[in-house]
Amino acid sequence: MAEPKRVLVLHGPNLNLLGYREMNVYGAKPLEDIDEDIKKRAGDMGIEVRILQSNSEGQLIDTIHEHRTWAGGIIINPGGLSHYSISLRDALAAVRMPVVEVHVTNIFSREEFRRTSVISPVCIGIISGFGGFGYLLALEAVADVMEATV
Amino acid sequence: MAEPKRVLVLHGPNLNLLGYREMNVYGAKPLEDIDEDIKKRAGDMGIEVRILQSNSEGQLIDTIHEHRTWAGGIIINPGGLSHYSISLRDALAAVRMPVVEVHVTNIFSREEFRRTSVISPVCIGIISGFGGFGYLLALEAVADVMEATV
Amino acid sequence: MAEPKRVLVLHGPNLNLLGYREMNVYGAKPLEDIDEDIKKRAGDMGIEVRILQSNSEGQLIDTIHEHRTWAGGIIINPGGLSHYSISLRDALAAVRMPVVEVHVTNIFSREEFRRTSVISPVCIGIISGFGGFGYLLALEAVADVMEATV
Amino acid sequence: MAEPKRVLVLHGPNLNLLGYREMNVYGAKPLEDIDEDIKKRAGDMGIEVRILQSNSEGQLIDTIHEHRTWAGGIIINPGGLSHYSISLRDALAAVRMPVVEVHVTNIFSREEFRRTSVISPVCIGIISGFGGFGYLLALEAVADVMEATV
Amino acid sequence: MAEPKRVLVLHGPNLNLLGYREMNVYGAKPLEDIDEDIKKRAGDMGIEVRILQSNSEGQLIDTIHEHRTWAGGIIINPGGLSHYSISLRDALAAVRMPVVEVHVTNIFSREEFRRTSVISPVCIGIISGFGGFGYLLALEAVADVMEATV
Amino acid sequence: MAEPKRVLVLHGPNLNLLGYREMNVYGAKPLEDIDEDIKKRAGDMGIEVRILQSNSEGQLIDTIHEHRTWAGGIIINPGGLSHYSISLRDALAAVRMPVVEVHVTNIFSREEFRRTSVISPVCIGIISGFGGFGYLLALEAVADVMEATV
Amino acid sequence: MAEPKRVLVLHGPNLNLLGYREMNVYGAKPLEDIDEDIKKRAGDMGIEVRILQSNSEGQLIDTIHEHRTWAGGIIINPGGLSHYSISLRDALAAVRMPVVEVHVTNIFSREEFRRTSVISPVCIGIISGFGGFGYLLALEAVADVMEATV
Amino acid sequence: MAEPKRVLVLHGPNLNLLGYREMNVYGAKPLEDIDEDIKKRAGDMGIEVRILQSNSEGQLIDTIHEHRTWAGGIIINPGGLSHYSISLRDALAAVRMPVVEVHVTNIFSREEFRRTSVISPVCIGIISGFGGFGYLLALEAVADVMEATV
Amino acid sequence: MAEPKRVLVLHGPNLNLLGYREMNVYGAKPLEDIDEDIKKRAGDMGIEVRILQSNSEGQLIDTIHEHRTWAGGIIINPGGLSHYSISLRDALAAVRMPVVEVHVTNIFSREEFRRTSVISPVCIGIISGFGGFGYLLALEAVADVMEATV
Amino acid sequence: MAEPKRVLVLHGPNLNLLGYREMNVYGAKPLEDIDEDIKKRAGDMGIEVRILQSNSEGQLIDTIHEHRTWAGGIIINPGGLSHYSISLRDALAAVRMPVVEVHVTNIFSREEFRRTSVISPVCIGIISGFGGFGYLLALEAVADVMEATV
Amino acid sequence: MAEPKRVLVLHGPNLNLLGYREMNVYGAKPLEDIDEDIKKRAGDMGIEVRILQSNSEGQLIDTIHEHRTWAGGIIINPGGLSHYSISLRDALAAVRMPVVEVHVTNIFSREEFRRTSVISPVCIGIISGFGGFGYLLALEAVADVMEATV
Amino acid sequence: MAEPKRVLVLHGPNLNLLGYREMNVYGAKPLEDIDEDIKKRAGDMGIEVRILQSNSEGQLIDTIHEHRTWAGGIIINPGGLSHYSISLRDALAAVRMPVVEVHVTNIFSREEFRRTSVISPVCIGIISGFGGFGYLLALEAVADVMEATV
To answer: Among E109, G24, J125, L120, which one is least packed by beta carbons within 10 Å?
Structure first.
């Protein structure tokens, strides 16, 4: 079993404020609760997860690099970095494993500039608009892909 | 129970060729098998589904109108119509229920013109890139939203 | 009297939901009532009208073709097709009679993409923003033009 | 009767040359005759009108301001100012009453730069392409709206 | 002889009016006569043809699908659909056989919006500007390609 | 003392309606009161001010020209002219003295077209978004610059 | 001699400051001197001229209208209005006589926004970059055209 | 017989390398062989041809000028010049005879910049994507047009 | 007194070099001196300030988050981040307090790319072009707003 | 007399056809006659001229280089090269003498692509729209500049 | 010897993965080996080097600042930051010494968004496409410039 | 040794004026001296070089074709042709050998239109901004690549 089911979950800038900021836009559930849900669902699915939130592009890239061999898949909500961080994109492309992009809101029904993600082209797919529940869907999605490619 | 869990699933133009065309892009699973998976998962979740594939924009709009009161949610893969059919968009906006947009491929890693969906802004969310499995994720997503809004 | 005053009135996609959908945007008057108003006003003006609503671009084009010799003028609300249907535009240009474009809402004060109509350049004029009453203004306008060109 | 039916009619730059200039484009009817038609129709409808033509953006804005309390509605043909005068637009938005934009020609079938009116988004509607007759339609339109909002 | 020379010829929206509409632009030859020319030339070349004209995008797509195995090549004049119908494009790409795009007029010397065809990138070639004669050239072209690929 | 502290304050089109129009956007303080505040603060600072409001681009330009030698600095709120009046820009550039651009609202958080000021590149700075108080800040700013350049 | 050689010369906004403002850009010769040169050269050529400078778009348009029958040609330096005043353009197009556009500087080697003149398309020609001398060239040019069309 | 059937065939830059360069893109047939095919087909059709290949824009223009009276039609593959040479375009427009544009590849399915030909608008038609065979189709096309216009 | 006057002042990337770099552009005053001025003026106004300079987007965001409850207002000079850091923008929007954007130079008279700030739309206002003095104006501005909203 | 009045006159591609091609656009006067007019006027003004027409960009550049020391000024009608030949532009900029750009037609009232000249920014001025007479105006203009700079 | 030859070499985000990621794109040589080559060549040339790789924009900026007086030149491969980091650009511009931009791949033959570097305009030159060897060329280039400016 | 180290060096339009024109931009070293440097360095490296300068696009293309078998690599400074000559690009792509693009200046810090080279995408790399020294770097670069591919 060369490639165990291990998934890295990354939350980008400002996601630590989930549940505290603009609740009409982002929902009332704090990130801690969402992380609990992720861990529980992952446990049920037999997936090992590591979760990190960071407001620093550099730290997110470092973390991706460090998990190059540990992880078999990545779930990432790049937050505001989605729209300009080609460095983050390059990091995800470099580690060559299935990446699922998650957004809590439907970025395609918001401001014009949010409708373009420079991250998407290096992901296998995107799940956007389903609040914290989107991470759970992403777990299922990345597991489905990892199974297919094992 | 004014709003039972009834979901309309719509496949747009050319999706009837799934499994037959450009399998390297769209995968090898025929639409019939995907529909079977949808029905089975829906059954497990206690959701009643109706599924339609059509190559005609007009027929898709008619079907949406006809299910205005029957359905509590819509899952739609608009196919090529995603990129220009403002009429389809208006139909989905008109019926005022949660709509989930599904794409078999990751439209954001393909040709430039596929990266803009005129449908997305009237949907609650989008799931793109997970093949036929995306419809099953969409079922979960729409159910989650319908529960929240009941 | 080679050219009797006969006017074809066409309602494009989703206009059948007038009075049922997004009433804050489109008003509360159902299409049936608007059609009654049109018929009544036309009767008062000695104009013969035929009215069709369709969600199908193809059917709208077919209808225009079929009335090439019957009608002396056309009133059309192209709905969402306004913004992309060059086929509908070509059909209207082909039948070479005065066409008046009507929109229930003021399309120029809505989303950016609604501000361009590919239909307008082949019409003699446009009336936009006056709800169902716009059709009655259009009747007067088309009659005025038909008189001038008889 | 706090809001009597009083309508301000404004003709922008160069409209004083109607009937004298480029008759193939703008028609042969002089502005004086059109104004007579407007007054007559207004009289028939029990509407009090004041009509002004000016080639000066500043004077048009001043006039709008001065009629803030007198008028219940405005009909304006902004002429060439349509395409750039954000100041005129702001003036119309400021006086918060129904405004109908009229164009003698169909501005949407002419040069590209004429297809965008910065005035339209602050109007309730637009009537374009029906020559001097368009003003009479505008009278009916503004009256219809004023009735609805009384 | 696994791949007999069978060619599907498709005429898109409004082409049924050829010979009746805007003859200065589209020429005076009716579509019926053009179809006769096609059949005669095809007969001379030993090619079996089926010809369909439709104003409905959906019907054109259905027809393409239905001839997936029958035809070895397609000649299509997409009419106004050329400029926006990504669904039609996807249908042509899906059936994986040589497609020749024909236009009666030279679309590159007309309005700006006619200069972009979303259909062209999935065709082997384009023939534009030679009136009804272009279909006969297309027959030769598609036959030449089919021979090369047999 | 070749360059006394004399400042010309200019209010562009529609600013005379401050306190009367769209108070949710522009605030409730009438221009007269703002002008009083300006005069008072200027008096405290030992600055001589002249204040003009005009809805006419020509009159604003004339006034700037006339104060070429009198004034040592200009504070201008160009209103809607900000977005297109290159003539006003040229007038300000021509008189070669420090100009401060003021906007009552934050023009960068409003409609897209308000985010570009053709006036800004010829000003030393901009103060936008602080209501009538912005003029007082501008007084301090222009005084600071005038001192530095004396 | 139905069309005597009478030429209207118009200077737009800020040209009254010629010789006083930005002399490195616009040259050191005052407008009065240029006007003297124009009158002298016109006298030598047997041309009657009237010259007006105005900072007001409205006044420029009024003046053009008033000289519709008097003048046989127009020389205009529209100043900053060149780049946006469609009203001025319409006025020049309306009076249907040869118009020569003059610019003191070479507007095509300055800021990007100065490279587009909305006035040019309604002129017979443009002379740009030769300082005050350009007006004298324009006199010759308009005389040459007027001769040809007499 | 004032206008004999004489056709000038021009190959632009780099076409001399046909059969030698990028054969997967441009095919394996050398230009010499294609020219032989052209001559043979022309002979069969009773058309006199002259053929020139040049890598020099100037020489191509000179050749077009020199054949102004000799030729009754032109077939040109402008190669890379298609996308920028307005000089070549002007030369073709100047000689006022039917011109057919040929491309060996389908330029509309290649890089974005190849999809616009500045040559096309002055041609009667375009044939693109059929390799060397396209020249033979062009011969038929130009002959058909020349017959119609004799 | 639930909301004491406490203001966070943030200097973005490279502002630590103020007084050392490109003094002709940014002025000769070192950041330390500007900070002293800020503290002194704040003291005079009874405002408590905390000041941070950082070249790291992540650290700036962290600092904003940490002061969510401490601060009643923010003054920020985002430096180069102004033009792309949507993450910084989201951080400022998330903490829901008045933010004033300051720039030492007039960013609207510099390179094109500096004229758009992605930060501005989430601020109450902007002060740009007044060197270090701009921070003092910002203190007054933010105090004025905080008073109004207490 | 270090800088005698010697002027190089260059006609770009296709100008040799003047008087033969599209006379409604370019006029009926052959280039030979225009050249005679130029020589005669130059003689009257005491200017020595050399005139060259070429369809080759390379030859035009060579000629400019060769006249670097001979000529004191250049008059050039770049023809179609105006719109793309940055090489020609660089050649003109390199020889550092006054250049006047001439166009026979008013390029600003023709097709969109003709409205931008890459040559203009390196010229002292432009004269466009006065037919062959424009060269004579250019002679006067270049002489006026050469005098000023002697 | 006020300015010794000391060069700072900076590797931006993801370059630490060189030799491990996408080797078909970036080559198989690890960064450690490239750094060894740089040090060796620098030693041969008598240049003192310091080398840093970082995934953090902030750390790169800090490092540049810290070497303001130590270094006489900078070699930087900004990685993905090339395309958006105006902060990094400002840091390089601020330290006022020769900067050479290096890219391992030819960024101009890759995706559209990689073809624009916001860094380039503040560098003396760019070397792109020569793999790790490009750093050695950059050493020579920066030395050549430093010699010229000593 | 099928592929000896033979390199073709091409200088495009206006490079013959190096050392004579705009020395502040292009440097004071004449092309002859640069060519001497190239020959000397090539000799030292055991590379055989041929060098050509031409102002003619056609001649440059011809020369590239003629050296298809002789040369193993090309160094080209396309001068102004860089920005539009797709014909030159196609010639370089056709000969299928490593090409290095050189620019004497840093084209990315100059006018906007110079920042795009249509040549770059078919080169292995670019060296821009190092004056005549750039050719020597290019020699090293092309040699390095040729070694790797032998």
So the answer is: G24
| Positions in chain B short of pLDDT 70 | 1-4, 149-150
Best probe of the J interface among L14, L86, L107, L115, by most J CBs < 10 A, is: L14
CATH of the domain at L135: 3.40.50.9100
Q: Give residue-wise pLDDT tens across range F25-72.
A: 777 889 999 999 999 999 999 999 999 999 999 999 999 999 999 999
B-C contacts at Cβ under 8 angstroms: 60
Chain K: residue nearest L125 by CA? Answer: K129
Full 3-state SS string of D109-137: HCCHHHHCCCCHHHCCEEEECCCCHHHHH
Choose from H128, H136, H142, H149 for mutation: most chain E CBs within 10 A.
Answer: H128
pLDDT per residue rounded down to tens, chain J (150 residues): 445 699 999 999 999 999 887 777 777 889 999 999 999 999 999 999 999 999 999 999 999 999 999 999 999 999 999 999 999 999 999 998 999 999 999 999 999 999 999 999 999 999 999 999 999 999 999 999 998 865
Query: In this structure, are residues L5 and L71 in contact, taking their beta carbons and an 8 Å threshold?
Result: no
**Interface membership of B116 toward A (CB under 8 Å):** yes
Minimal Cα–Cα distance from H68 to chain E, Å? Answer: 22
Secondary structure (DSSP) of E36-91:
HHHHHHHHHHT-EEEEEE-S-HHHHHHHHHHTTTT-SEEEEE-GGGGGT-HHHHHH
D49 touches chain C (CB under 8 A): no
Q: pTM of the prediction?
A: 0.95
Q: Which residue of G has its CA nearest to J112?
A: G121
- Using DSSP, state whether H109 is helix, strand or coil: helix
Give the CB-side neighbour count of residue B120, counting CA atoms within 13 A. Answer: 27
Q: What is the pLDDT of residue F1?
A: 43
- ipTM for this prediction: 0.94
Q: Which among I106, I121, I140 is the nearest to F124, CB-wise? A: I106
Query: Is I128 within 8 Å of chain F by CB?
Result: yes
Tokens of E102: 């024909």
Positive/negative CA dihedral, A66, A67, A68, A70: positive
| Cα–Cα dist C19/C16, whole Å | 9
Structural domains counted in chain I: 1
CA distance I95 to E39: 73
Chain B residues inside the 8 Å CB shell of E94:
14, 17, 20-22
Q: What tokens were used for E21?
A: 């509409």
Instruction: Give the alpha-carbon dihedral of B35, B37, B38, B43, to 10 degrees.
Output: 130
Under an 8 A CB cutoff, do K144 and L133 touch? yes
Residue L119 near residue L78, CB atoms below 8 Å: yes
- Give first-to-last CA distance, chain E, whole Å: 9
Instruction: Report chain C residues whose CB lies below 8 A from the CB of B96.
Output: 21-22
CA-to-CA dists, residue C76 to B108, C21, C142, J100, angstroms: 36, 20, 11, 54
Listed residue (I25, I20, I10, I148) closest to I79, CA to CA: I10
Give residue I102's identity as a one-letter amino acid code: V
* Half-sphere exposure of residue I33: CA atoms within 13 angstroms, side-chain side: 11
Q: Does the beta-carbon distance from J123 to G117 stay under 8 Å? A: no
Distances (CA, A) of C55 to B15, B88, C81, L65: 21, 9, 9, 59
Give the C-alpha separation, K93 to K123, whole Å: 8
Give residue A83's domain range: 5-148
Residue to mutate among H57, H61, H85, H87, with most J CBs inside 10 A, is H87
Residue by residue, DSSP assigns E105-117 as S-GGGS-GGGG--
Q: Can you tell me whether residue H85 is helix, strand or coil? A: coil
Look-up of token digits 């003392």 = F1
Q: Which residue of G has its CA nearest to D23?
A: G94
